[in-house]
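Good morning C.,

I know you're traveling, so I'll keep this short. The sequence:
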Amino acid sequence: MPAKPFIPVIAGPTAGGKTELAIACAKLAEERGLVPQGKSEVISADAFQIYRGLDIASGKPSMAERQGVPHHAIDIVEPSEPFTVAQWLELATNAIDDIEARGGWPIIAGGTHLYIKALIDGLFEGPPADETLREQLRAVPPAELRTELERIDPKAAERIHPADQRRTIRAIEVYRLTGTPISDHQSQWDRDTNPLADRLLLVTLQWETEAINRRINARVRSMVEAGLVEETRRLLESGNLGVQAAQALGTKQILEHIRPPETSGLSLDDAIERVKIETRRFAKNQRTWLRRLASGPADRPHRLVVYPDRDDIQESMQIIVDTCFMAS
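The tokens, ready to paste straight into the viewer:
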């Protein structure tokens, strides 16, 4: 019986072309007869594409952009609902099993660090949430929370975006409840217990700063033209926008514009500029952890680096497909 192909995990910064490359790989594998027609399927590793109605802000691919390639972990919960890394990991691993059982080829694509890390290394669950402590922390000014995080857990502070209040609060919560930084807990994850680890091909998209910033600025303009403000207003007025979904880049900044003037009063132009700035900062953080991922051990998972700003997408997808199917 031939060996199963590697499962590509395409990780890259926001606006970095992850979905486009995943779909190109899916199509190429089917064209070559390596996978039956319609059996290459993409599993999204994006913490905001899971939300129904959060389409523009999350950069969710349209049905036309998906080109008939089935997608998983998209539009699965309401934006009022919380969604955890553990839930995504269970969904993703179940989808992998199901796709392969049907003779298909799963492709993971996304830029959510904790999703990718959980798939590769396993999951640190940590202590259960302490809602009383969380309420206390939510009342603390964000700058003070950031200062505390940098003091108690510098490694986590490097990884967590300053505007990501939810993960900042969780990191502080774990420290206060256990006395140990969350980064130390996470470093104890044991990838040797992960049966998928040696079947994954981690593909990291490494962009030059100027090139990815140009793409981010262009994407933000396209998001606004596509109706980002209207999408955000619709979600807010529906009463269906939860705390977690409201942290999406684009949604968060536009909310500051459309809420009552006494609350924010941010002009639309300033809100759009803030989206660009915060997205570029986020992408910088993504590039940092992507470099770390790319420099890890070579075989668990196997690793491949792609440079989209200088490599042709046709060449990149051929290398990925060739590498994944070389042992099958």
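Safe travels,
E.
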